[in-house]
Amino acid sequence: MSENLIKTLEAKRVVPLVQSENVDTALRISEALLEGGLDVLEVVLRTDVALDCLEAIANEFPHAHVGAGTVLSAEQSQDVIRRGANFIVSPGLDPASVKVANDAGIPILPGISTATELQQAWNMGLRTVKLFPASLVGGPKILKALSSVFRDVRFMPTGGVSPTNLHEYLAVPAVLACGGSWLTPEDAIAAGDFGAITQLAKDAIAIAQS
Ligand code: 3PG
Question: Which of 24, 90, 178, 181 has most Cβ atoms within 10 angstroms of its Cβ?
């Protein structure tokens, strides 16, 4: 994975998900997160306009690190790269997507949830992966177990990470950063309360730095 992205993830330690049915709203969410100090954003392909959101965010905030999440296939990997993704995150391990990302020189963090999947990722040359769904497959304990064996791998746990357990995940030395949707709650977005998102971003940074 690119050194630049690793350094950024190491510095921020938190990767918020951006999901919206509307491009303008996605821009407002992103702006709120950036105002709160989080500049690594994962735009998830979970709505019909997700690719438009990704492109708009990447264009509007060129200094942010804008990646695409929930990328499920090689075709989607090509799409998100064309739309400006700086990095790719997927819930599972798809060799065809890894190849597309590698060929394009774009960092990819595929999801793994077992030692076997991690070993497959390792044999593809990957040293940075997502652990998903982190809280269901063992949380910080599985990260400690996996990292005692795969000693050169860094993890981005997501799935069930929240302000109450963020510090436990970040305390595991092999954890680079945590991802999650808790920073962009649907109710705050529906209410147009983007200030709440900025506050959640600031709170997460405070936890990460404590
Ligand atoms: C992801 O795509 O990484 C997960 O959906 C995040 O899980 P969370 O909603 O529990 O944070």
Answer: 178
Cβ atoms of 70 and 46 within 8 Å: the answer is yes
**CA-proximal residue: ligand 1, atom 8 (nearest):** 159
* pTM of this structure: 0.96
Q: Is 36 helix (H, G, I), strand (E, B) or coil?
A: coil
Active-site annotation holds for 202: no
- What domains does the chain contain, in order, with CATH numbers? 3-202 (3.20.20.70)
Q: How far is the CA of 16 from the centre of ligand 1 (A)?
A: 9
Q: Over the chain (210 residues), what is each successive 10-residue block's mean pLDDT? A: 84 96 98 97 98 98 97 98 98 98 97 98 97 98 98 98 97 97 97 98 96
135 in contact with ligand 1, CB cutoff 6 A: no
- pLDDT on residue 200: 98
Question: Are 69 and 42 within 8 A, CB to CB?
Answer: yes
Separation of CA 24 and ligand 1 centre (Å): 22
